[in-house]
Amino acid sequence: MTRKEIILASLATCSGHTYTPVQIQKLLFLIDKRAGLQIEPRFDFKPYHYGPFDKGVYDELDGLEQEGLVEVVREPNLKLRKYRLRPDGSTQGGKLLETLDARTRDYVLKLSEYVRNASFTQLVSAVYEAYPEMRANSVFVG
To answer: Best exposed site among 68, 76, 82, 106 by fewest CB in 10 Å?
Structure first.
């Protein structure tokens, strides 16, 4: 899978749900580390303020937005952007998700559910616990 394809498949785990930047970064980091997917080229996560971060994730999301597959939701009075699939992106992402072997697909579904339901503190803390090297450069106190 390409990076764009894994983003589409990952977001298709919960159609219509919006993902915050921290959620999408951590979801893709954990998939990259744990799901064993064949992604070429792989993401290049580095320790940053709130754990693993790859600017390339946003570049891919911007490209998917330009293709009409991802919607960037900007909440009034907030600088925070959230991401969700548009209908065509959901269709494509669902098809890509189905191409994964059952074990990997189930793992990605469970991981996505965890990321969506964990608080910011829970999510960042869990990543730091599992990957302490990602704490370098952190400004997170939790």
So the answer is: 76
